[in-house]
Every structure is written in structure tokens, then in C-alpha cells.
Amino acid sequence: MQVSDAHGASATSYAYKASLIGSAHRFELTDDGLSWHIAGRSGVWRYDEISAIRLSFRPVSMQQHRFRADVSRAGGGRIAILSTSWQTAALMAPQDNGFREFMIELHSRMAKAGSRAELTAGLGRKTYAAILAFLAVLAVAMMALLIRAFLIGEFAGALFIIGFAALFVWQVGGFMRRNQPRSYSFDQLPRGALP
Fold this sequence. Notes:
Layout: E1 2-4, E2 10-16, E3 25-29, E4 34-38, E5 41-45, E6 50-57, E7 67-73, E8 78-82, E9 84-88, E10 91-94, H1 96-112, E11 118-121, H2 125-151, H3 155-178, E12 182-183
Helix pairs in contact: 2-3
């Protein structure tokens, strides 16, 4: 969302509710830097003070299409910005367009400020490798169960295993593809890590 301050300068703002209880987390891109208001605390981080941004795809049970940006500051401090907002006890609303526009504008302002921030997307390399190893073991186990089901003539069980594996690959495959560890530049934000 674009707003104008008292001096007529344009600022981009974004807000979301991280939980039902408590106030919204509010962020604004001003001429001075990234202004944030979270749980009664606030501050402004100059664009050249931001040391790292990690974009990732982080679905949860209530919202399967959720993205996250972790913004770190040189000298300490980290802010998480989510693409969804709690509406009711059973509803998380996506804010895809607002989140995407805010992230694009943040990167643009950081580039103009000459930022040398580390820009990464996806999971950490060690975490990603551990998940891949676990999935490989799981695939071997599922294949063994499938072979066993065919050998003993349990075709209904084999069909169930095939259906379960297809659903699992569809769900987990998308998560793994979007969260593949990679670096990116200010002018080429990763598509899979943004809505």
C-alpha cells in the first residue's frame, strides 16, 4: 500500500496479524529506512544496515500458501514478515499482493542505498540436505512396502501406497522445489519464494 507522509514523500507500508491476540505487526518503507512496530516495540533500520534477507515458502495447516521474509540487521536483530494475517480463530487470510509489493520495494530501496546484504531464498543448506536424506530413506521404505504388497498379492494395499506416495510427492515436492537453497540479486527476486 502506498501512503504519503506529512512532507508529501511516498512510503510503502505493510501490516499483518501474527496471532489473534495482540496488535498487528506494522512495517513502512520510509526515506530513513525500514520502520517497524511489533508488540509495543518499534524502530527504524537504515537500508544499508540490513545485513541479510531470507525469503522462504512456509505453509502451515491453516494456510497452505504462506511466505516468510526474515530480515536481519548488522549488529543484531531479526524481523520476520509473513504473507498471511489472522482474521478469526479458524481463518488466516493471504495478503499475497501486499507482501510481494512490499518485498519488491524493500529490495529496490536497499539497492538504491548501496546495500551489500546477503540475499538468500529457501531453507538453510544443512536443513535442506537433512530433509533430502530423510525423504530418500522414506522413498526406499515406501518402495520396499510396494514390492512386498505386489509379492504377496495385496493389490489394494499396493494401490493405497501408490496413491499415498503421489499425494506426498505433490505436497512435499512443491515445498522442496520452492525452498531450494539459493542466492539471488536485488534485481532478480526468486519467483518460488514470493507469492
